[in-house]
Amino acid sequence: AKVTYVEHNGKEHTIDVAEGLTLMEGAVKNMVPGIDADCGGACACATCMIYVPEEWLAKIPGKEDMEETMLDFCEHTQANSRLSCQIKVTPELDGIRVSLPESQH
Ligand code: FES
């Protein structure tokens, strides 16, 4: 699925991310700056936060408690924040655009 990551400065990276990978893995493997993912995807660091537009949020499974808790630690959390390591790429997400925060923490 094609995923577009938009950096805080507006720079876009469109990447074909294989199904089954997470949005975090798609960014990290392709050197998209802005996602640190210190814990490697264990939902334990909250440095892989992204903003997901409303229309796409509806196509992504909801947050588990753990993700919710971790997001509370992020300084830049907004209502549409998600942890990118908790979102698996599916064919339905083809064309998704997500925004990256100015900084993680
Ligand atoms: Fe650590 Fe997502 S990579 S919480």
Automatic annotation (TrEMBL):
Keywords assigned by UniProt, alphabetized: 2Fe-2S, Iron, Iron-sulfur, Metal-binding
PROSITE patterns found in the cross-reference section: 2FE2S_FER_2 (PS51085)
Cofactors that this protein relies on: [2Fe-2S] cluster
GO MF, one annotated term: 2 iron, 2 sulfur cluster binding
Annotated CDD domains: fer2 (cd00207)
InterPro entries in UniProt: 2Fe-2S_ferredoxin-like_sf, 2Fe-2S_ferredoxin-type, Adrenodoxin-like, Beta-grasp_dom_sf
Top-rank lineage group of the source organism: Bacteria
2Fe-2S ferredoxin-type domain span: 1-104
Gene Ontology annotations of biological process type: P450-containing electron transport chain
Family: Belongs to the adrenodoxin/putidaredoxin family.
This protein's name: 2Fe-2S iron-sulfur cluster binding domain-containing protein
